[in-house]
Amino acid sequence: MDNNKIFNHFQTGIRGAETNYYTVTEGWGEHPFRAHPPVHFGASRREREKVTSLMSYKDATLPLQARVQSLLAQMTTEEKIGQLVQPFGWKMFTKNEDGSITLTEAFKQDVREGRIGALYAALRADPWTEVTLETGLSPREGAEALNTIQRYAIEHSRLGIPIMFGEECSHGHMAIGATVYPVPLLAASTWNPELYERMCAAVALETRSQGGVATYSPVLDIVRDPRWGRTEETYGEDPHLAAELAVAAVRGLQGESLAAPDRVIATLKHFAGYGASEGGRNGAPVHMGLRELHEVDLHPFRKAVEAGAASVMTAYNEIDGIPCTSNDYLLDEVLRKQWGFDGFVITDASAMNMLMQDHGHNVVETGEQATAISLAAGIDLEMSGYMFSRYLPAALEQGLVSPEQLDQAAGRVLEMKFKLGLFDRPYVDPQVAADVIHSPSHIELAREVAREGIILLKNDSQRLPLDATAAGRIAVIGPNANKPYNQLGDYTSPQPAGKIVTPLEGIRAYLVAAGHGKDVLYAPGCRIKDGSLEGIPYALEVAAQADTIVLVLGGSSARDFGEGTIDLRTGQSLVHESEESDMESGEGIDRVDLTLAGAQLELFRQLQGLGKPLIVVYINGRPVAEPHIDEQADAIIEAWYPGQEGGHALAEILFGDVNPSGRLTLSIPRHVGQLPVYYNARATRGKRYLEMDLTPAYPFGYGLSYTHFEYSEPAIESATIALSSITNSATQADQAILTTVSIQITNSGQRAGHEVVQLYITDIVASTTRPAKQLKAFQKIHLHPGESQHITFPITAEHLEMVNQALNRTIEPGTFRIQLGPNSAEGKTITFTVTPG
């Protein structure tokens, strides 16, 4: 809309009865624009031209920065601070009996005074928010609620600035009714970035359809100690794999345009080093040099920024004594100057509080100082908004913060709101939310991800797959066999009965559909953490009647949803108000060990004594180190937290309809004392302890199939590369192909299946100590029995780069070894040389 058209609107506008302002509707959507200052009938031409100029931020045809600067110039200091504040959204309203909402008076006042720019998790439902299935909002009601909030913000704030709604979407929108996908650790185990991109796109659609425009994912932390409770939220231990999935997540969430009605902002977290904390404790200090930080932990962040990620969240931890929330080297020098990031930076909840004396990091004495060093470092938005709203005004008055710093942060937030199209299309269609959320295609996608991510770790005597006809009676035993919430990750909303398919339900449904209708027996045996043995006799009694035992063990990230506990003698649910949660994984739930909690190992030992085929299924959020089970179980499946369709996917794998193709994205140790045990460690780590060597029980990249794949000897196009032919710039030259390596894969078994062909590179001699090997490429292929496929991998400059002592990415001359194989511990090798000339 041009300025003449705006001027005509003012000439023919309708004067507001209460405000004496003109209301403009055509071209602006549903909401009125309240001019500032007010324009009365009979105003002079100069006054009208001034208002036309002031209104230019509403003109979608103007350049983005022109709109931002036009709006910023009209804002008061309090309104600018308000744009940096993101309170908890679920506290801003109450639900009425008819499903509508009533806004709180405190929220209304904050809006009128310009003190809110964004809301965190307005639709989040879980025990923390105290939002239940009964008190929460359906998909349609959620969309209507966010429209109500948005409309009030636009119509009752002085400048009509829309609110930016941020939602949790780690493995599905954390709102009632949304599809619950497998956790990122399982999604990564698919080794299928294209599939993961589709999953992220589906999550974005469900979230945006209700009005959410930003999500606090993906989690790009590299896991160094899996005792850490948030391991389930990550992609594992490898920076290259994490980078590939990070790029897929950004593409799936953000698409081509943030203004699209099915896309949301991707927020990269936690920046940085969060997965390398001391002792695997959440938010603990990180002891890491800058060179390793750049080469490992920052790598997936850099690749995601290059892919266009619009937001970054700082981590709680410190690195070498510098808290990430106030680390100007990370947030300004690296993120913005070196990488060219042009989005906004948000804190994690209460991270800024931790900077103060007696709150954690203790690097400043006052709240004013905490806000000042955070803003100066590059923070633009505060989750919770507690510190900015309370202390930033005084920090400005004291001269700790400059007006220019405030304008910079507020401008970045406003710029993102324009990019999202919130000024032009602030509302959503509730019918779309009702149609797309938990649609049949999304349910099937959840099952597809689970199918490809579940990992077969052991299969002695080809015990699996089971023959539905010959397997006889099956007993499904274990604390995770039939607890719906235990199939899901930490960031999960309340679920209605029947939505989550447990292993027991999946197996029963499969056999009924197959026409066998066998009676599947069940007993819980024990609980996750409780050491009581009272349920084991009943489990033995049930298992004794079966021909095959499927034992479902592991962990739980289930918050206390009131699901109740289980009668260990009958398997029936018992609800007790004082129930101790089974949660042993998730945010803030870190462990000193990786063994099974409670009486689970004893349950295995006693079932083993029956002498029947015993198949163990782990459902959990971190690796399990149980050597006795590794040795004695007939088959072992790692299912992580497989999501709402996990029970169906597991049954399809158990009975052979699906050939397992998941591969580990972190190493599973034999003993917790081996930690850290990641595959890409340096040779200087040593060889062994007194009791055992350093090899894991299952290496990174490992996973079995129901068929067998043979690898030919690899071939390389050119075994010599001249260093002078390589341009060491940090952008497009990284992708220039220097040579290629190829190999032929043959399915020599009797079943069709997927193989994940993995390429590792070793820099044999370098000026700094190097990892024993590093994943640099992979490809997931599907082959029928007897079929072969010739795979070619390009070798680019980026594959050969290292970060030197000056923190520059460079390539040094020398010999490199390539390993091509099914996992990090085995494969065929070939070498090539980079010469100085």
UniProtKB/TrEMBL annotation:
UniProt cross-references to InterPro entries, sorted A to Z: BXL, Fn3-like, GH, Glyco_hydro_3_AS, Glyco_hydro_3_C, Glyco_hydro_3_C_sf, Glyco_hydro_3_N, Glyco_hydro_3_N_sf
GO molecular function, one term: beta-glucosidase activity
Top-rank EC class of the record's enzyme: hydrolase
This protein's record includes keyword Chaperone: no
EC number: 3.2.1.21
Domain of life, per lineage: Bacteria
Keyword tags: Glycosidase, Hydrolase, Signal
Location of the Fibronectin type III-like domain: 755-824
Family: Belongs to the glycosyl hydrolase 3 family.
Protein name: Beta-glucosidase
Organism of provenance: Paenibacillus hunanensis
